[in-house]
Amino acid sequence: MFLSTAPIINSLDTLFHLAAYDKLENKFVQLLQLLPQESTHIASALRRKNKKGNNPLHIAASVGNVKVCSLIIGISKSMINTYNNEGESPLFVAALHGRKEAFLYLHSECGPHEDYCIRKNGDTILHCAIAEEHFDKRIIKSHLVMCLAELCYKILGLYGDLVDFTNGKRITPLHLLANKPSAFKSGNDLRWFENIFYNCEYTVKF
């Protein structure tokens, strides 16, 4: 086993994982150059997982390292179709951590396939974006209106069907948002907002 592909810390991360995490694109390229240039060696290095099941593409996506994401996918596009221990794809991980640019890049490579947007417990990328509070709050015409941040808007535009998708606990993203007191000015007055959700038809505009 080559040093660059061997786990070097307790989390089983390799030098490739660490270079992706620290956004050391030049070091990442140098590590690739140290490997025998047979495709099997390179593929093995890129697919090696840490304790959480994350490969270097997952790590790059989680920190918004678009350059390393594009480098990895340029070498092996099938890396898009890899999953960690929670059943999360690299695209899912990018959304989970609010990395809009990495999310949009990965979407452009894998296309609108919802398999990449759902993890083992049934949570979608929209569930997670709301749970992590990747949204913004604005007051319009004296009413507090929740405006999902750019990432959530992009998710809704690209994967509109996810808005009604229920997870393993039978919770939709709208239910999740309605039960986020921190999303509202009062912190507890949710009735009017729930009424909007259930009685109005929404059109997301970009």
UniProtKB/TrEMBL annotation:
Q: Which residues does UniProt assign to the signal peptide?
A: none
Which Pfam families does the entry link to?
Ank_2 (PF12796)
Q: Which SUPFAM superfamilies match?
A: Ankyrin repeat
Q: Which InterPro entries match?
A: Ankyrin_rpt, Ankyrin_rpt-contain_sf
Q: SMART domains, per this entry? A: ANK
Q: What is this protein called?
A: Uncharacterized protein
Organism, as annotated: Quercus rubra (Northern red oak)
* Taxonomic lineage: Eukaryota, Viridiplantae, Streptophyta, Embryophyta, Tracheophyta
